[in-house]
Write a structure and sequence with these properties.
- It is built from 38 helices and 33 strands.
- By secondary structure, the chain is an alpha+beta fold.
- It starts with a strand and ends in a 20-residue tail after the last helix.
- Helix 31 (about 845-850) runs parallel beside helix 35.
- It comes from Durusdinium trenchii.
- This is Cytochrome c domain-containing protein.
- Keywords: Heme, Iron, Metal-binding.
- InterPro entries: CBM60_xylan-bd, Cyt_c-like_dom, Cyt_c-like_dom_sf, Cyt_c_Planctomycete-type, DUF1552, DUF1585, DUF1587, DUF1592.
Length: about 1100
């Protein structure tokens, strides 16, 4: 039988990665050329235009041309070798399809075998060639969030607390077959909330506040357990008319001296007072005399108790009753309460080991609480952050302690809150790798020893470095090859290396799928298969792989070994005799058993063991298959090395890793034992490089306002850089060097062109399309694709959301809105296709949820928790901000839902939702929340900034109002509708109010630019790396003019734009010419969009 769980690497080995690519396996690096000299092979010298491009025109253009490109693949866009290399992922797929004969499809005319091979060889060279003798591309260092396994192990090794995150944390995403891949380990808002909850739970387990160890139990007599004559009496007492007992068991947290208080009363009779025996535990007993009659008395004692359960009791021991006695005839006892409190002093030994390890200094004479906290965190933070820390970092976290103590709580409680802040800091949650010298973006630098220690420990142990690794890193010795080899062997011998066995084999070999619905054998064919047998199969493979690791066996034993691990049940399944009991043991496979290595483990369900490989070899039975694969040892070793390197680095293997893989295989050629493979991979961080931050991405946004503008107050009189801002643009004075005013642009397709009235519908419809909308108020709308969606098709695959569409006013997608035009035209500026608009979202909560998959649930936590959590967030957001400045755009996405902006926006959204339910004052409330138009607009601008900052998307459209909107703006003294005012007929009062609206909107735009500039990124800020178009497709709303439009272009477009001037065009340049230029700056190679006539000139003068 052959295990389906390992068919993936069979396909990889057997088919030269072709089959593997079809199932999501990594790039085949075995085909990557690695020349040692500078001479190019003949295939590389073929001319693209005359010898390569004609092949695609002849055989591929019918399906993948400009008109109707199947699967969105338009090969006509690729007009040079560079354009192919820039879209490597697409062309890797094309190359594989051509190689296996799937492109062109079998029912189409086929190229000759010679032509096909030439194209495959040429693409192979262009896509995969690496010169190993040159400076190597090390690949980027991926910022990695700790996954659930790493989080649990790190908490255990850091604090000695066993916390299982799988019970409450959302599951980790999987990339390249593993759940420790940096690119897919996001941090959604729900996980942030779970981190806060976990930090609170862990801090309470790690540090014991004295108040949590002290007890104060008040046992009420009537509520205690009773025996003998004892029963519930008056005034909540336990009354004992004769011999009786009231007792209760309490839990004592620590050894110590406790205070015992008793309140009791008595009915006196006879010649002696009532007596009660008071006991507390096995060693304390006291006889109390209650001398008063019917008057309660109080008693207090000091008692030494041991940790554990303690029984406390009060017993009436001298009953008296004589009905013939003179005077009082009956003696009774009333036990009102027993109180246990303490201990007053807690011994150091009473605290848990985790507490004693973390708190080594406490406030004392001459040592303040702040100084004590700083001393503790100087020891702890380097281990928590896995690197040396600065004194300012120590001070920041230690400052929590006096803040908590100022609120009347203990030093230890302050340390708990400070620890919570550490555990939700990005410096703890993320693994960032530092270098030995400052690197410029795009350059390379050697990993420092602390980064090397973390990479090694999380590779082999899925946990933080231990003291040995930290000491070697501090001494600067870990990077030495002999030390690195010695440490790798030491760590493999440690029991923590079981994590490598479980996590790597469980995912590489698909063992984890056994517990899912993906593995469900037909019970009719396999009646013996059940959960118990499934678990046995899992354990067999895990133990076998573990033996390769622990016994340092040859990696090729994974294919050919004639031993395995079984218990009685699994042995019976395989037909092995002489095995009894539940315990697994290693057994040699007998002769005649058609089994060897992993391929014959029934790790999933059995499959047919006869067949033909994609490369042509036929086999009958598993041993013949294993024999074939055994002849291809290097391909198997390469597959194993690529998978383990992926697991170790936390990123997918790329074509430029070929030389690294080759070096690993060279070591395996000399020594094929597992330790040799692990050592070779451990040396990769030392031999390879840590790349600096990659180039920052470019962003593009389009902001639409309705009804035109008062152009005399919008358009500057002078062109060039020496111009004066007109009245409407005055709020942008501080940003004058950050944007350009562009005049002379026109939107011809917003004009009637024979269609009559409806300029407002055409204004928004043509704004981003440059296409004349079909005049209809029915379902047969037709327009054209908008520029934002053209860009999203190309670069949207690089972000979570291809594009984001937001607005302020709700709209409709049907019905009549403007002179016979559908409301779909007035409500949208983004169009996915000719007939499908991309609807905008106006509700901030919905925008946030679309960006991040849901908000943090609003738990009704206590005031104390909310207070401290807010303080924690204030500290760790500073950490996040500092961390962001060191990262490139792709890694910043890992922090996309992190505290700084995410929490700020979330809190504002929650506040706005509450305000929307409050009493509404006498002015118009916008659709959605909040109630104030400017606040709503700014909130949406904030969400745009957040989307760009987190690289959630790089393309956004924002409608400040629907086209033709008649909203009033009473908050600025404009009670009339906007559209109504736009037909001012030269009325000075109406013109002044329109200008006031124009300036009001510009004021919010200025706020947006403030926010964009405040976000540092790389060597600049977010605005430097963006292109923001603000405008309308109507200039004069009174006369519905569509030329000399009001347009601003803000940002520097990653250095491709020159702002700070008035750019004046002549002769009605199409607005879409501007868009073509912007698309090209986004690396979208479009030559025309809508009615464009070419790219706009002068943007980068």
């Amino acid at each position: 039988m052959i295990s389906a769980s390992v068919l993936a690497f069979v396909g990889v080995v057997a088919a030269g990665m072709v089959w593997g690519w079809m199932t999501g396996e990594p790039t085949d690096l075995s085909r990557t050329a690695a020349a040692g000299g500078s001479t190019l092979p003949a295939i590389a010298r073929l001319d693209f235009e005359t010898e390569i491009q004609p092949f695609f025109v002849a055989h591929c253009a019918d399906c993948h041309g400009e008109d109707f490109p199947e699967a969105g693949l338009n090969l006509a866009r690729y007009d040079s070798v560079d354009s192919i290399i820039e879209d490597r992922q697409t062309w890797e797929k094309v190359e594989k399809l051509i190689r296996i004969g799937a492109m062109p499809p079998p029912d189409m005319d086929q190229p000759s075998e010679e032509d096909r091979n030439q194209i495959v060889e040429w693409l192979d060279h262009q896509l995969y060639y690496v010169d190993c003798s040159a400076d190597l591309d090390p690949g980027r260092v991926t910022v990695r969030r700790l996954n659930q396994t790493e989080y649990r192990n790190t908490i255990r090794d850091l604090l000695g607390v066993d916390f299982d995150p799988s019970r409450t944390f959302p599951s980790d995403d999987v990339g390249y077959g593993f759940d420790n891949i940096g690119d897919v380990l996001t941090i959604p808002p729900l996980l942030v909330e779970k981190y806060l909850d976990a930090a609170e739970t862990i801090s309470l387990a790690a540090i014991q506040a004295p108040e949590s160890l002290r007890i104060h139990h008040k046992l009420v007599g009537a509520e205690m357990k009773h025996s003998g004559s004892a029963k519930k009496g008056p005034y909540a007492s336990a009354v004992m008319p004769s011999r009786g007992r009231a007792f209760e068991t309490v839990r004592v947290a620590v050894d110590g001296e406790y205070t015992l208080r008793v309140e009791a009363a008595a009915d006196q009779a006879g010649d002696e007072p009532a007596k009660m025996e008071l006991t507390a535990g096995p060693d304390f007993s006291k006889i109390i005399e209650i001398k008063s009659h019917k008057k309660p008395e109080e008693f207090e004692f000091q008692v030494v108790l041991s940790k554990g359960s303690v029984e406390i009791s009060g017993s009436f021991i001298n009953d008296f009753y004589d009905e013939k006695a003179k005077g009082r005839k009956d003696r009774n006892l009333y036990l009102k309460s027993i109180e246990l409190e303490g201990p007053a002093k807690i011994a150091e030994s009473a605290y848990r080991e985790s507490h004693r390890r973390l708190i080594t200094v406490t406030p004392a004479d001459g040592v303040s609480p702040l100084e004590a906290a700083q001393a503790n965190f100087r020891q702890f933070l380097p281990r928590a952050f896995r690197r040396p820390v600065r004194e300012e970092e120590v001070e920041k976290f230690a400052a929590f302690v006096p803040m908590v103590m100022d609120r009347g709580e203990s030093f230890e409680s302050g340390m708990q809150i400070a620890l919570q802040a550490v555990l939700v800091s990005p410096q703890f949650l993320f693994r960032t790798e530092g270098g030995t010298s400052p690197g410029r973006p795009g350059t390379a630098e050697l990993l420092d020893d602390y980064a090397l220690a973390s990479r090694l420990s999380y590779f082999l142990w899925s946990s933080m470095p231990d003291k040995t690794l930290f000491d070697l890193a501090a001494a600067g010795r870990l990077h030495k090859l002999d030390v690195l080899k010695e440490q790798t062997l030491r760590m493999l011998a440690d029991e923590r290396a079981d994590e490598l066995v479980r996590n790597f084999s469980g995912q590489w070999l698909g063992l984890r799928k056994l517990s899912t619905n993906e593995v469900a054998p037909d019970p009719k064919l396999f009646p013996e298969y059940d959960e118990t047998l499934r678990d046995d199969m899992w354990k067999e493979t895990e133990l076998f792989f573990g033996s390769i690791v622990r016994d340092n066996r040859s990696v090729y034993d994974l294919l050919t070994a004639r031993d395995t691990f079984v218990n009685e049940r699994l042995a019976r399944h395989y037909g092995l005799e002489g095995i009894e009991g539940e315990e697994f043991r290693r057994v040699e496979l007998p002769e005649g058993q058609q089994r060897a290595g992993l391929l014959t483990h029934d790790g999933e369900f059995p499959v047919d063991a006869n067949g033909t490989l994609p490369t042509g070899e036929s086999f009958e039975g598993p041993l013949e298959l294993i024999g074939i694969l055994g002849q291809r040892r290097e391909e198997f070793a390469r597959c194993l090395a690529e998978k383990m390197l992926t697991y170790a680095l936390g990123r997918g293997v790329e074509y430029y890793d070929k030389c690294t893989i080759d070096s690993i295989l060279m070591r395996l050629a000399d020594d094929d034992r597992f330790a040799s493979l692990a050592v070779a991979i451990a040396m990769v961080p030392r031999a390879a490089w840590a790349a600096g931050a990659p180039p920052t991405p470019n962003r593009m946004a389009f902001i639409f306002f309705p009804n035109g503008a008062i152009m005399k107050d919008w358009k500057p009189e002078q062109a060039g850089t020496d111009y004066k801002l007109p009245k409407t643009l005055a709020p942008l004075e501080k940003h004058q060097k950050d944007f350009m005013v562009i005049s002379g642009l026109a939107h011809d397709k917003a004009r009637a062109n024979g269609d009559g009235a409806g300029d407002h519908a055409r204004c928004s419809a043509a704004f981003l399309t440059g296409v004349q909308p079909r005049k209809t108020d029915g379902a047969d709308i037709r327009l054209g694709r908008s520029v934002d969606q053209v860009a999203a098709d190309v670069i949207g695959k690089n972000t979570r959301l291809p594009s984001l569409e937001i607005g302020i006013e709700a709209g409709r997608q049907a019905g009549r809105c403007d002179s016979g035009y559908s409301c779909a035209y007035t409500s949208n500026i983004s169009w996915r296709s000719e007939t499908v608009p991309t609807a905008k979202e106006i509700h901030p909560n919905a925008v946030f949820e679309r960006m991040f998959g849901g908000g943090v649930e609003d738990a009704k936590a206590r005031a104390r928790r909310n207070f401290y959590r807010q303080s924690i967030l204030d500290v760790v957001t500073d950490d996040a901000a500092k961390l962001r400045t060191k990262l490139g755009g792709s890694d910043r996405r890992k922090l996309d839902e992190y505290f700084q902006s995410v929490r700020e926006i979330e809190q504002r959204i929650e506040r706005a939702a509450v305000e929307s339910q409050a009493q509404i004052p006498d002015f118009e409330v916008p659709d959605g929340v909040p109630r104030d138009w400017a606040e709503h607009t700014r909130l949406m601008y904030d969400l745009m900034v957040l989307a760009f900052e987190t690289d959630t998307t790089r393309i956004c459209t924002f409608m400040l109002a629907n086209s033709g909107s008649n909203r009033s703006y009473k908050e600025i003294g404009v009670g009339e509708g906007h559209h109504q005012l736009s037909h001012h007929r030269d009325d000075a009062e109406k013109i002044e109010k329109l200008q006031r609206i124009d300036q009001y909107m510009i004021t919010q735009f200025s706020y947006f630019l403030d926010r964009m500039k405040s976000i540092e990124e790389g060597t600049g800020n977010l605005l430097d790396h963006s292109m923001i178009t603000y405008g309308c497709a109507i200039s004069d709303g009174n006369r519905h003019r569509h030329e000399d439009l009001p347009v601003l272009l803000a940002g520097r477009g990653n250095g491709t734009l020159t702002p700070g001037r008035h750019l004046k065009y002549e002769n009605e340049v199409p607005m879409n010419n501007l868009y073509v230029s912007l698309l090209n700056r986004m690396d979208v190679p479009e030559k025309s969009v809508g009615d464009s006539t070419g790219p706009a000139k002068g943007l980068d003068a």
